[in-house]
Amino acid sequence: xxxxxxxxxxxxxxxxxxxxxxxxxxxxxxxxxxxxxxxxxxxxxxxxxxxxxxxxxxxxxxxxxxxxxxxxxxxxxxxxxxxxxxxxxxxxxxxxxxxxxxxxxxxxxxxxxxxxxxxxxxxxxxxxxxxxxxxxxxxxxxxxxxxxxxxxxxxxxxxxxxxxxxxxxxxxxxxxxxxxxxxxxxxxxxxxxxxxxxxxx
Length: 201
Known about the structure:
The protein is mainly alpha-helical. It contains eleven helices and no strands.
């Protein structure tokens, strides 16, 4: 799911996504992004007048990519809510393995100053609204345990992206970042979410 960099602007976005997602927005300068692309800082500023503008563009692109991942996962799953949630979890973990900076950007939202984070979170609103509407309809149909659909969507998203992108917290309890343990983690998370969403819970 990496950014396809076929233009100077695309290469700048790709480099910024990699650096912001792995090191954090505040830790990366425009000079470093320019050096990673192989252009002058003035070239970066030609395409993005300020660092904030570049951050906005990177998040917009990341949200679009994650939206495409989730939409494809939902379409590929059977018409059953637990199966669809399961499909989304598997798709998000694949994204975490293939392109860690993409989900690392989502984690950055909790680290940015509130004013900037609030502006960036607005880009997630359409995805959240769709999830809330879907969960609400499934609750009305009795196929998902009755609860607050907005809170449930937020908790599920925080759980999936947090566990998929924060290995340091897991290492504290003896978890090791390798494919075997990642698969085990994914299995446990899928079981946890299924139990939480089951109408018989």
